[in-house]
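Milestone M4 deliverable, item 7.
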Amino acid sequence: MFQQMRPYRFLVALLVASAASPFLHAQGGPLSTTFTNWINHPAIAYRSAPAGDPVSQLNQALQSGRIQLKADGPSGYLQSVLEALNVPVESQIAVFARDSVQLARITMTNPRALFFNDSVAVGWVRGGFIELASQDPRNGVIFYALEPGSSRLTRRDDCLSCHYSYSTAGVPGMLVRSYEQFAVDHTIPIEKRWGGWYVTGSSGTTPHLGNADLNQLALGHVTNATLNWPSLEGKFDTTGYLSSHSDLVALMVFEHQMHLMNLLTRIGWEARVAEAQRLKIPVFQLAGTDDTPIAMEDAAGEVVDYMLFVGEAPIAEPISGSSRFRERFEEQGPFDRHGRSLRQLDLRRRLMRYPLSYMIYSPLFEELPGAAKDAIYRRLWQVLSGEAKGPQYQRLLSEDRRAIVEILNDTKKDLPPYWRPGTI
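Output delivered:
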């Protein structure tokens, strides 16, 4: 986050977007490949609407004195910030590619540590400041900084110069990169992931690009010595870091979640702009732009396919993390009457035991406009019930579909009445 675009060949970083100008790009394709500059649209009002994200709420608590941050050693307020935002230390992942506003501080011996939960990502570089990217359920990701010695989280809309583009699905959002991969999500094969990142845990004999010097990657000089690290101990001085891990499983969850957050934000924008047009709310339109929202059923189709892990790169052999991230992640639930949860991981052939994203419980999903949520629920039922046909759904087995519907019926109270688990 807070990326400063530089002419580096190795564009690898957290929460970064392309430097494409966010103007005059017409719609007409999927959410993930279209862009219309709606940031100042009255239905969006990203810069002027009251913020409702977790970091803005923390900032209010800090200013009122209800919460006080505590500095602790070289990491400063980091531990205190994570606790206040309920972000687990076990989620730590570390990136050493120098594509950040703090790039002068980032090296392989001083990587940027990143932490996340369902709504917030927190970045820290030893000797630098704390970066925060916080999901507003209505308007997209809002960026903040906490400078050393300060108790005020400062909003950083200047981050939109990179974080608002095609690469973030046309909304203020998040993105993960890897060596020679401009964007990484769960569809990218493991063999092409994590260039520029540290990776701890086991991928068995499956190779990946993590832990390797980027110059060595460019020369093709990568060996198995970069695979299956149990921790970061002995790899560099970890003084000040809250964990000695950059957990492989955390990385995979993170990659899935970041893109879905953008897609959910985008379908919410589409619904809000469509409603404003229905109500004939006047809006200034840039010459040459196509201000027509994508049809809800089309937008929902892309969102649902991603939520169901359609196109997910398969896992060739069992993988495992190196920290307690998996346990912390799975224990959050919610659980159905049989003890099943959409947070349960598989890690033998795919990421999730039940292939529907846990983000269906997130505030971002819960606060979608009614038109967007209705369209998602309808399309999701069409796929899970078998009404929707297509080769892309062949990997979604009947027992998986049945389990997902049963779990949702026990754990989601706003399902439409046509959701009938006994019909699957």
